[in-house]
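Weekly structure sync, notes
Attendees: PL (lead), two postdocs, one rotation student
Agenda item 3: pending single-chain targets
PL asked that the sequence for the first pending target be pasted directly into the notes so everyone works from the same version. It is reproduced below exactly as submitted, 255 residues in total.
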Amino acid sequence: MGNTFQKIEITIRWYWSTETIVLNLGALSCDSNRELITQDRILHKGKWLTLTLRPTPAYTQLENGDHRLTLTYRRENQDVVLGLDYIWGMTTIVLSSNLLAADIAFRADEKRWRNSDVRHYQDYAIRLISGARTIVSEVSVRCGQGAFRAALFKQTQRCEITGDSVREMLDAAHINAVADNSINDPSNGLLLRADFHRLYDAGYFWIDMDGCFHMRPEMPESHGRILKDMERLGDATLARVRDALLERERCRAED
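Predicted structure, written out during the meeting:
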């Protein structure tokens, strides 16, 4: 695997439950995770229940280095279902080669669920864990983020601030936060290096409607120097996102 992590924890927030999957990274093969157990936290009759599930796993490493894991959930493999009208089927998780991003899909067994959104995920989080149980890295991604990121890469292949072009370092950053996928559009987004994305979301700097950068005094010095040198967004980027910047500025004024 070429990394020092021993486990990966994937938390998927479905529309009706939250599932946590912990995988042994020593070898992601089917054999190493044969006894895989996942936990699904589900709302039932007004109370949250935690179900322990035993899916049947299958693992394939793809030619591009990504990892595909399928988890098949069958009623007969579970100890207790508590009379729940649970949705059985198969989850497919494709992890990027660096383990920091995933594509997730679910196919229900029963026909009545096939066209339902109930098992489409809202967001997911990935934690890479060392042997000392230290969280080494954590990534949280909204449903639709993959398509949003792909749309931004069609606009530019570099960080809009630093010019970095290593894909694994770049995030799709929303100018205005979204509660759903309604504003997952390039006109509301910037391709940013991950550290600048975190600083932007935390309010350490902002961008006015003219594309100029403004910073809080607490802005890390090294990052502040980069913004001072850059001064403003490029003209092409500004033309694309000006309306979103105007909306962001309006919201700041109301706050």
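Discussion points:
- The radius of gyration is 21 Å.
- Residues 7-142 form one domain.
Action: rotation student to compare against the earlier draft before next sync.
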